[in-house]
C-alpha cells in the first residue's frame, strides 16, 4: 500500500494545477505550430490580439464564453450529485425548441413578457430532456453516461424533424423556423449599452451573458448553500450516507439531472434568442461537450467555471482569427489546440498532482 | 512431517493508532491443516494479508519452507507457493472457468496454448482432488460452492503448496461445506499445507490438526486440536478479563419504546438476511445484540432505521407503527437516532466540513434552515457547541471531516445523534477504531442516555462492550436470534458459544411478558 498523498494547499489546488496544465497545453500546441513551420509566438500573439485586443473581438470572446458558462454549469451540477452528464448538446437543442416555441407564440407581445417566457421555456425543455435519463438511471439502472449520449442523437434527429416538418415556413428552402417577432429578440449588448448612452462595438454578445452570470450565482447558492444542493453533494460523495440521512439518491439523481438539463437548455438563450432570432439546425456546435472540459477545469465551482469558460472563449475567438490570418493554420489546427487544452486540463488533471504534492509537502517539512 | 511450511517471527503491523498485529509468531507444519480463530477485528485477516503480500509488515520475518522471504505483492506470494482463497471471490463472472483459471498465465499473445494447458490441468485437478467443475461453464452461473472450487483450482494451477482459506464456509451451505472439507482433507493427504481462517469453532474441531487463537492483534495460544475443546477455545477467543465502567443498577424498565415483531429482511439476491426477529427495548434499558459480524445485525438495524426495506414484520417506535416504506428521515422524525456501524461509509461525508457532516440527516430541521437554504451560521454555531461538550479535537467546525481522528469523528456522529434528544437510540459498533480514551467517554454518554430513560439498542461484536453496557443481550447467528440472556446472569463464554452457533439454546431468563 502506498502512502496516501498529502492534501494540496487550497491555492495550489485551485490555481497552480490549472495554470500548469494550461501552460503545458500551450507549450505542446506551440510545438505543433512549430512543426508546420509557423512561429508559435506569432500565433499566440495573433490569438490573443484576436480574442482580447479590440472591442469586437472581446465581444465575440464573451459571446462564446456565455455558451461555455451554461454548458459548464450544467456539467458541474450533475457532477456534484455524482453524475456525468454528457448530454449538454441534446439538452441545449431541446432547450432551443422550447425557447423557439415560446418566442414564436409570444413574439408579438412586449419583451417583458415574451423574453422571460422564452427563457423559462428553454430551461423547462432542457430540464425535461435531462430528467428522462435521470429517471432511467434512478428507476431502471440505465447508466446516465450512456443514455445522455444517446439522447444527444435523439435530440438532434428530433430537431431536424421539427424544423423540416413543423417549424419551417412554406417556401423556405433551409431547415429553419421563421424569424422571431421583435418582442422575443434578446437585445445585443451594444444595444443595451446604447440605452445608457454608452457606445460598444457591434458583436453577437447579448444580454444572455448577464443571464449566464446570474446562473453562476444561482448554482453557487444551490450547491453550497441550499438544502437541495447539500443533498446533491451527499449523494455524490457518499450514496450510503445519503440513504442513512434519509435522502433518496434516486430522487436526487432525477432532480440533479433536471437542473443540469435546464442549465444546458439555457444555452439556447444565447444562440437562439440572442443571436439567430430563429431556430436552426446545429446551433449547439459542440459547446455542450466543451462544457465537460470547462467544468473539470473550473473544479465544478461557478467561479472556476467563469474563468475556464473565458479561457475557452479566448481559444475559440482567437483561434478563428488565427485561422483567418494564417492560411497554413487551418480551423482544424485550432481544434487540435483546444483538444490539447481539454486533454491536459481535463483528462490529465491528476498528472502533476502527486509530484506537486510531494514537492510542496517537502517544502513545508523543511520550513517547519 | 515436522518440517515447517510457514514460519512467522514477531510480525508487527500498525494502521495509524490501531495495532492490528503485535509480535505474532506462528509455525505451520507441512502437510497439515492449521486453523486460526479469533473474533472479528482480532487481526486474522491482516496477518493473512501480510502473508499474501497485500500489506507489508512493519517488522518481523516470514520464512517459507525454512527460507527467509520478502513478500511484497501477491506475485511474490504466488512465486513462494502460496495461494489464497478470499472470502469474497476474485473471479471474473462473465468469463468461463478456464479463462478465469488461466488469468495471469495466458502464455503468450495468443491464448490457445495457455487455454489447452489450463483445461488439461483443470481436468487433472478435478480427478486428483475431487475438484470437479466444467471447464467451459460461465463462472457467474455457477453456485457459490463451485465458484469457490474455481478459486481453489486457480491457486493450485499456479503451483500453490500452501493454501490460505479466509472464512471459506461463510457463504456455503452445510452440504457444500462438507464437500469443501473433503477436498481439503484430500489436499492434506497429498502433502499440501492449509491455513484455515475462521471464527467457527465447529470447523476448527472438525478438520484442523492444530489451531492458533488470536485476540486483539495478539496470538494468544497454540493448541493441538486433539488436545483442546470448543469451550477452551471460546474462552481463549473472547478473553477472560471483563472490566470497564460501572453500568449502575438496572432501573425498573419503563414503557416499550422500540418493538420489533417477526422482522424479515432479504438482500438483493433474495437471500434471507434476517428472519423472524422479535424483541423490544424499554425506556431506561440497554439491550445488546451480540454476534459475529455478518449474521444479520447490519440488516436488522438498517431495516429498523428505514435505510432498507423490510420483507415482513412490524416495527413500532414510541407506540407508533413505522410504515413499511418509511425512510430514514421518517424514522428520525418518529424519535429514532442511529449511530451507524461504519461512520466513514455511512455516518459522515469525509469530504465535507465538520459542520456539514454534523447536520447529516438533520439538514431539513427548521433549526438549520432558512427557507430553501441551509442556515450556515446556525449550523456552525451548533456544531461548535457540540464539539465543546463532546470534547472533539480540534474544535473546528470548518475543518474537513476526513482530517479528524477516528475517535473524534465518532464523537461528532454521537453528538449529532444524541443531542437531538431521541427516544430510541440505535448504536452500532460505537467504539470500532476508536482510541481507549474515547471509548470510556462514548460509553459514559450511552449510559447517561439510559439514565435519562431512553431506550438503547447496542449492536457490537465486542463482547466486552456488550457486557460493560447492556442489561439484556440477544445473540444473532444466521439472521436469527439464537439466544437471549440477562447480561448479569450469563458470561462471555456462554455468549461466545451462542455466537459461534455451537448451541441452539432456548431463550431463558426472559419473563414471559417481555416476549411479544
Summarize the structure.
The complex is a heterodimer of chains A (368) and B (516). Chain A is mostly helical.
Mind explaining what this structure looks like?
The complex is a heterodimer of chains A (about 375) and B (about 525). With about 375 residues, chain A is an all-alpha fold. Chain A has one domain: ABC transporter involved in vitamin B12 uptake, BtuC (Orthogonal Bundle), CATH 1.10.3470. Chain A is built from 16 helices and no strands. Chain A starts with 9 loop residues before the first helix and ends with a helix. Chain B is α/β, with parallel strands linked by helices. Classes of the chains: A mainly alpha (about 375), B alpha/beta (about 525). Chains A and B meet through helix 9 and helix 10 of A and helix 10, helix 11 and strand 18 of B.
Poorly predicted regions of chain B: 504-516
The sequence of SSEs of chain A as H and E is HHHHHHHHHHHHHHHH
What is the overall pLDDT average of chain A? 89
- The portion of residues forming beta strands of chain B comes to 25-35%
Number of strands of chain B: 22
Q: What portion of residues of chain A belong to β-strands? A: under 5%
What is the general shape of chain B? globular
The value of Rg of chain B in angstroms is 25 Å
In DSSP terms (H or I, runs of 4 or more residues), the helix count of chain A works out at 16
- Largest sheet data of chain B: 6 strands, mixed
CATH superfamily membership of the largest domain in chain B: P-loop containing nucleotide triphosphate hydrolases
Determine the CATH topology of the largest domain in chain B.
Answer: Rossmann fold
User: How would you describe the oligomerization state of the chains in this entry?
Assistant: heterodimer
Termini of chain A, distance in Å?
27 Å
Class computed from helices, strands and strand pairing of chain B:
alpha/beta
Task: Round the Cα radius of gyration of chain A to an integer and report it.
Answer: 22 Å
Amino acid at each position: 500500500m502506498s502512502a496516501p498523498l498529502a492534501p494540496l494547499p487550497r491555492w495550489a489546488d485551485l490555481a497552480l494545477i490549472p495554470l500548469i496544465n494550461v501552460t503545458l497545453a500551450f507549450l505542446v500546441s506551440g510545438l505543433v505550430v512549430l512543426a508546420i513551420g509557423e512561429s508559435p509566438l506569432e500565433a499566440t500573439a495573433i490569438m490573443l490580439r484576436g480574442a482580447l485586443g479590440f472591442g469586437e473581438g472581446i465581444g465575440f470572446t464573451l459571446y462564446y464564453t456565455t455558451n461555455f458558462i451554461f454548458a459548464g454549469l450544467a456539467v458541474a451540477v450533475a457532477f456534484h450529485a455524482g453524475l456525468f452528464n454528457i448530454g449538454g448538446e441534446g439538452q441545449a437543442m431541446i432547450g432551443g425548441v422550447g425557447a423557439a416555441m415560446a418566442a414564436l407564440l409570444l413574439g408579438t407581445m412586449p419583451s417583458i413578457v415574451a423574453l422571460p417566457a422564452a427563457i423559462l421555456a428553454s430551461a423547462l425543455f432542457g430540464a425535461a430532456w435531462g430528467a428522462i435519463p435521470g429517471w432511467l438511471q434512478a428507476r431502471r439502472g440505465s447508466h446516465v453516461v450512456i443514455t445522455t449520449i444517446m439522447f444527444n442523437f435523439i435530440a438532434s434527429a428530433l430537431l431536424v424533424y421539427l424544423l423540416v416538418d413543423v417549424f419551417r415556413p412554406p417556401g423556405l428552402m433551409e431547415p429553419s423556423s421563421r424569424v422571431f417577432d421583435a418582442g422575443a429578440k434578446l437585445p445585443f449588448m451594444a444595444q443595451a449599452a446604447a440605452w445608457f448612452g454608452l457606445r460598444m462595438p457591434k458583436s453577437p454578445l447579448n444580454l444572455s451573458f448577464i443571464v449566464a452570470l446570474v446562473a453562476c450565482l444561482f448554482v453557487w447558492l444551490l450547491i453550497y448553500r441550499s438544502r437541495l444542493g447539500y443533498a446533491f453533494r451527499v449523494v455524490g460523495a457518499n450514496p450510503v450516507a445519503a440513504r442513512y440521512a434519509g435522502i433518496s439518491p434516486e430522487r436526487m439523481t432525477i432532480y440533479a439531472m433536471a437542473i443540469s438539463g435546464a442549465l444546458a437548455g439555457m444555452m439556447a438563450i444565447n444562440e437562439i434568442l440572442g443571436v439567430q432570432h430563429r431556430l436552426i439546425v446545429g446551433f449547439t456546435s459542440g459547446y455542450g461537450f466543451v462544457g465537460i472540459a470547462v467544468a473539470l477545469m473550473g473544479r465544478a465551482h461557478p467561479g472556476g467555471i467563469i474563468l475556464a469558460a473565458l479561457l475557452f472563449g479566448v481559444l475559440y475567438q482567437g483561434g478563428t482569427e488565427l485561422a483567418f490570418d494564417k492560411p497554413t493554420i487551418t480551423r482544424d489546427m485550432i481544434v487540435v489546440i483546444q483538444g490539447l487544452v481539454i486533454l491536459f486540463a481535463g483528462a490529465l488533471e491528476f498528472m502533476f498532482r502527486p509530484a506537486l504534492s510531494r514537492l510542496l509537502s517537502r517544502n513545508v517539512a523543511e520550513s517547519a | 512431517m515436522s518440517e515447517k511450511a510457514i514460519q512467522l517471527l514477531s510480525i508487527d503491523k500498525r494502521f495509524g493508532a490501531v495495532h492490528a498485529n503485535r509480535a505474532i509468531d506462528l509455525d505451520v507444519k507441512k502437510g497439515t491443516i492449521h486453523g486460526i480463530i479469533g473474533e472479528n477485528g482480532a487481526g486474522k485477516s491482516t496477518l493473512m494479508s501480510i502473508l499474501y503480500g497485500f500489506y507489508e509488515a512493519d517488522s518481523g520475518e516470514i520464512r517459507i519452507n525454512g527460507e527467509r522471504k520478502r513478500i511484497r505483492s501477491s506475485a511474490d506470494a504466488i512465486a513462494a507457493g502460496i495461494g489464497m482463497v478470499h472470502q469474497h471471490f476474485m473471479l471474473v463472472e462473465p468469463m468461463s472457468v478456464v479463462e478465469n483459471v488461466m488469468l495471469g498465465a495466458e502464455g503468450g499473445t495468443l491464448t490457445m496454448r495457455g487455454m489447452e494447458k489450463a483445461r488439461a490441468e483443470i481436468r487433472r485437478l478435478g480427478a486428483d482432488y475431487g475438484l470437479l467443475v466444467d471447464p467451459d461453464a460461465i463462472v457467474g452461473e455457477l453456485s457459490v460452492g463451485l465458484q469457490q472450487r474455481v478459486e481453489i483450482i486457480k491457486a493450485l494451477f499456479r503451483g500453490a503448496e500452501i493454501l490460505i482459506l479466509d472464512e471459506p464456509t461463510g457463504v456455503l451451505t452445510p452440504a457444500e461445506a462438507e464437500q469443501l472439507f473433503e477436498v481439503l482433507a484430500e489436499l492434506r493427504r497429498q502433502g499440501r499445507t492449509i491455513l484455515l481462517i475462521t471464527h467457527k469453532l465447529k470447523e476448527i474441531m472438525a478438520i484442523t490438526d492444530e489451531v492458533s487463537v488470536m485476540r486483539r492483534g495478539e496470538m494468544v495460544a497454540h493448541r493441538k486440536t486433539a488436545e483442546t475443546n470448543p469451550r477452551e477455545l471460546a474462552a481463549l477467543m473472547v478473553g477472560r478479563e471483563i472490566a470497564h465502567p460501572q453500568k449502575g443498577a438496572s432501573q425498573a424498565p419503563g414503557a416499550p419504546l422500540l418493538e420489533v415483531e417477526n422482522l424479515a429482511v432479504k438482500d438483493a439476491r433474495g437471500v434471507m438476511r434476517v428472519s423472524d426477529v422479535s424483541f423490544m427495548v424499554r425506556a431506561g434499558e440497554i439491550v445488546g445484540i451480540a454476534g459475529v459480524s455478518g449474521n444479520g445485525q447490519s440488516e436488522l438495524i438498517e431495516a429498523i432505521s428505514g435505510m432498507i426495506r423490510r420483507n415482513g414484520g412490524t416495527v413500532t417506535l414510541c407506540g407508533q407503527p413505522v410504515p413499511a416504506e418509511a425512510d430514514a428521515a421518517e424514522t428520525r422524525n418518529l424519535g429514532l437516532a442511529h449511530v451507524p456501524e461504519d461512520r466513514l461509509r455511512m455516518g459522515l461525508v469525509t469530504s465535507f466540513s465538520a459542520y456539514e457532516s454534523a447536520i447529516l440527516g438533520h439538514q431539513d430541521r427548521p433549526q438549520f434552515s432558512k427557507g430553501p437554504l441551509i442556515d450556515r451560521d446556525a449550523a456552525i454555531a451548533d456544531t461548535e457547541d457540540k464539539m465543546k461538550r463532546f470534547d472533539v479535537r480540534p474544535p473546528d467546525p470548518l475543518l474537513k471531516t476526513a482530517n479528524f481522528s477516528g475517535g473524534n469523528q465518532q464523537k461528532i456522529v454521537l453528538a449529532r445523534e444524541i443531542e437531538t434528544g431521541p427516544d430510541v437510540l440505535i448504536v452500532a459498533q460505537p467504539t470500532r477504531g476508536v482510541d481507549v480514551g474515547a471509548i470510556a467517554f462514548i460509553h459514559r454518554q450511552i449510559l447517561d442516555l439510559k439514565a435519562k430513560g431512553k431506550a438503547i439498542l447496542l449492536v457490537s461484536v465486542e463482547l466486552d462492550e456488550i457486557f460493560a453496557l447492556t442489561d439484556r443481550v440477544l445473540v444473532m447467528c444466521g439472521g436469527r436470534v439464537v439466544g437471549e440472556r440477562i447480561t448479569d446472569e450469563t458470561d462471555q463464554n456462554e455468549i461466545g458459544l451462542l455466537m459461534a452457533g455451537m448451541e441452539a439454546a432456548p431463550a431463558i431468563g426472559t419473563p414471559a411478558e417481555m416476549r411479544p
